[in-house]
Specification:
Layout: H1 2-9, E1 12-17, H2 23-35, E2 39-44, H3 46-51, H4 54-61, E3 65-66, H5 79-84, E4 89-95, H6 97-104, H7 111-118, E5 124-127, H8 131-135, H9 137-148, E6 152-153, E7 157-160, E8 166-170, H10 174-184, E9 194-199, E10 204-207, E11 210-212, H11 219-230, E12 234-239, E13 250-252, H12 256-267, E14 272-275, E15 282-284, E16 303-305, H13 309-316, E17 321-328, H14 332-342, E18 347-352, E19 364-365, E20 367-370, E21 374-376, E22 380-381, H15 382-391
Parallel strand pairs: 1-2, 1-4, 2-3, 4-5, 5-6, 9-12, 9-14, 12-13, 14-17, 17-18
Antiparallel strand pairs: 7-8, 10-11, 15-16, 18-20, 19-22, 20-21
Bound molecules: ligand PMT.
Ligand PMT binds near residues 200, 216, 256 and 327.
């Protein structure tokens, strides 16, 4: 019973696989979607089966692979209709020029093209083909037609193609496809909200090879930006140096001063500023143009204060909501409340960074949201925390 209700809660994705060499990447796509606990349904075209056996996809996708339109002796199921029933998303990867052509012209001569016609939602296409085939006016016209009908495309990339040329035609990477697919499945309750999110550390240069920074990985801020983007917000992420990938509008900065100037360019128009970044409070008083030479004596580095960004925008704000974080190692609630008052914040998210699973460079956090009320949250993923914070808006 439990198992059944769990399965019923899972989001259902129909994955259509057509016959292009890029379908080897779809194995990774399958694996990523299964790890994220989506319920997959798979249709392979006859040409796709020439590249990889359906058994491989059945194993990776933990599901049956459908291909045939006609089953002798079975009259109880019209498969192309059943397969598109109740799905949360439909993706075609790789989408060949041939399939795009059929879809744009209403040709339903196999199970996948029939399922496409039987589905009345927006389909995500991940094209993968030779560059000349992609740039051909026929393919471009077909893509335009499908877009006009509300279908979406995740652009093919430039790179080395199977035909040993370099050009635009490589199917997008699975790690880039998954967030776009998830965005399609997310309710757009933040549409029309303009949200600035900051993430990561700042870097204050001492000389060309040395700098001051901190342990922020950017995970918290990126999770907020990602959820805001998926929920339809007009989001701008302003990020310090991190190793994370962004799929939404992003500006990159290094120092606290640069971060403040960048926010300033967008602040007047914004509805909210969420400061998950860990900007350096100090910077070296002198920035050396040449590498400081080692001498046989102590070196004293003089620091000067950086501006407090949230305080600056608290003085400037009209309608904007200001949300800050407090990264504390002691007296969590007291210090967080002082920061909230001093920086005139609508909310402060207090994280005790001494706790296991909280704070810097982990995928989870343990926070208390302090607004007019106080809400103490248990350990949760930064993604779930991001949604809780965005709910405040
Ligand atoms: O990036 P992760 O590895 O995922 O880690 C997440 C995090 C621990 C960095 C994040 O959850 C967090 O707590 N961010 C704020 C870190 C911080 O700078 O805290 P603070 O208590 O020093 O600053 C309080 C608030 O003022 C913060 O919102 C900060 O962005 C802001 N600030 C800080 C310094 C400064 N000069 N100007 C500011 O506006």
């Amino acid at each position: 019973m439990l198992l059944k209700s769990n399965l019923m809660n899972k989001k259902k994705i129909l994955l259509g696989i057509t016959g292009g060499i890029a379908l080897y990447k779809v194995l990774e796509l399958c694996s990523r979607l299964v790890k994220k606990d989506y319920d997959l349904r798979i249709i392979m075209t006859e040409n796709a089966k020439e590249f990889v056996s359906p058994l491989t996809f059945e194993t990776m996708g933990r599901t049956k692979v459908y291909s045939e339109m006609f089953h002798k002796g079975h009259h109880d199921l019209v498969e192309h209709i059943e397969l598109v029933k109740d799905i949360d998303a439909f993706i075609i990867a790789p989408a060949t020029a041939n399939f795009i052509g059929k879809a744009a012209n209403g040709i339903a001569d196999d199970l996948l093209s029939s399922a496409f016609l039987a589905y009345n939602g927006s389909v995500l296409f991940a094209p993968g083909m030779n560059d000349n085939m992609l740039s051909h006016p026929a393919t471009q016209k077909n893509i335009e037609q499908l877009k006009e009908w509300g279908h979406e495309f995740i652009e093919a990339q430039i790179g080395r193609l199977a035909c040993n040329t370099v050009g635009k035609g490589r199917m997008a990477e699975p790690e880039d496809i998954v967030p776009v697919l998830e965005k399609k499945m997310t309710v757009k309750d933040l549409r029309h909200k303009k949200i600035i999110v900051t993430a990561g550390p700042t870097v204050e240069r001492i000389d060309p090879v040395r700098y001051l920074t901190n342990d922020s990985s950017g995970k918290m801020g990126y999770a907020i930006a990602e959820q805001a983007w998926k929920r339809g917000a007009d989001v701008l992420l302003i990020s310090g140096p991190t190793s994370l990938k962004s799929h939404w509008p992003t500006e990159y900065i290094h120092s606290t001063n640069e971060l403040m100037r960048k926010i300033d360019e967008y602040f007047d128009d914004a509805d909210a500023l969420i400061m998950a970044a860990a900007p350096s409070d100090y910077r070296p008083k002198v920035r050396y143009d040449q590498k400081i030479k080692k001498k046989d004596q102590d070196l004293i580095l003089e620091l000067e204060e950086n501006p407090d960004i949230l305080m600056y925008f608290a003085g400037k704000k009209s309608h904007q909501k200001l949300i800050g974080f407090a990264a504390e190692t002691e007296n969590l609630m007291e210090n967080a409340r002082i920061k909230k008052e001093k920086k005139s914040l609508d909310y402060i998210i207090a994280n005790d960074i001494t706790q296991k699973g909280a704070g810097f460079n982990v995928d989870t956090n343990i926070c208390t949201i302090i607004g007019d009320d106080v809400e103490k949250l248990d350990l949760m993923s930064k993604k779930d925390l991001a949604d809780r914070i965005l709910d405040l808006l």
